[in-house]
């Protein structure tokens, strides 16, 4: 199984974290489950392989559309994949889908929405061009050129909510939202309302997602020991170890010690 990230054009870096290609060069002999914490990112995905299923707090098991846009995930989710794996994806900064396309992000939280329902005919035509592209680079170029056109046409430049959402994520959720609002002279009620439209969840909840996302990235690639929990509690601003375990379990449906030993994140399957 191959997963490769591709850096976007400099003109897209304010909106796009990366492109990715996810493929298998052989048919998978049986279905596998790949889990992910809520990441803080949103995405646009074009599947040219076998259809896969999403399992999350909304759906026990549902096929994803061939081409879709996904909003914020608020809890752990799983992908059930099998057959021939092949897809290209765009990982967006937290508020970029709203800034570029005007999507009210609270409407697609925990959802994978068929791209034509969001972008209309141009979404369907983009998917068709990707299917007709002969190489991975051609597929990436196709998506990148589409997004560059959208950036050039965009009449809604980044505002304070874009800045704040990116800053929360960069700070790994360890940030005082009250101090941030005061520094930027933002009205609390207006800030909450605009942030929900831009990102899909409240600023406080997004900070919690950002912490969990970064924690899971650390824990999935390192063999943590019991004595390490104290360092994590301090580093990520939890009151104590029980608060950390409670928060982790709420998002991941299992305690940290179980996750460390048995997580099925994508990194476990890559060669």
Helix/strand order, N-terminal first = EEEEEEEEEHEHHHHHHHHHH
Number of helices: 11
- CATH class assignment of the largest domain: Mainly Beta
Instruction: Give me the CATH architecture of the largest domain, please.
Output: Sandwich
The CATH H-level homologous superfamily of the largest domain: Jelly Rolls
Total strands: the figure is 10
Mean pLDDT: 90
N-to-C span: 7 Å
Structural class: alpha+beta
Q: What's the structural domain tally?
A: 2
Give the structure's gist in a few sentences.
The chain has 271 residues and is α+β, with helices and mostly antiparallel strands.
Q: What structural keywords apply?
A:
alpha+beta, 2 domains, about 270 residues, about 20% strand, six-stranded antiparallel beta sheet, single chain, Jelly Rolls, 11 helices, Arc Repressor Mutant, subunit A
């Amino acid at each position: 199984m191959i997963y490769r990230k591709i850096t976007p054009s400099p003109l897209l870096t304010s909106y796009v974290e990366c492109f990715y290609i996810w493929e298998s060069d052989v048919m998978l002999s049986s279905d596998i489950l790949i889990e992910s914490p809520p990441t803080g990112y949103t995405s646009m995905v074009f599947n040219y392989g076998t259809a896969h299923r999403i399992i999350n707090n909304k759906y026990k098991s549902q096929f994803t559309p061939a081409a879709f846009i996904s909003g914020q995930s608020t809890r752990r989710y799983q992908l059930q994949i099998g057959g021939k794996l092949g897809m290209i994806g765009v990982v967006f900064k937290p508020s970029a889908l709203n800034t570029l396309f005007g999507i009210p992000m609270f409407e697609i939280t925990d959802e994978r929405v068929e791209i034509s329902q969001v972008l209309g005919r141009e979404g369907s035509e983009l998917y068709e061009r990707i299917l007709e592209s002969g190489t991975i680079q051609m597929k990436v170029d196709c998506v990148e050129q589409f997004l560059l056109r959208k950036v050039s046409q965009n009449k809604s430049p980044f505002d304070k909510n874009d800045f704040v959402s990116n800053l929360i994520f960069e700070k790994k959720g360890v940030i005082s939202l009250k101090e941030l609002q005061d520094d930027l002279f933002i009205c609390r009620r207006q800030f909450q309302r605009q942030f929900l439209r831009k990102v899909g969840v409240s600023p406080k909840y997004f900070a919690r997602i950002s912490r969990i996302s970064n924690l899971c990235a650390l824990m999935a690639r390192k063999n943590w020991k019991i004595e390490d929990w104290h360092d994590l509690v301090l580093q990520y601003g939890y009151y104590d170890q029980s608060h950390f375990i409670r928060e982790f379990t709420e998002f991941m449906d299992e305690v940290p010690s179980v996750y460390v030993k048995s997580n099925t994140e994508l990194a476990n399957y890559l060669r």
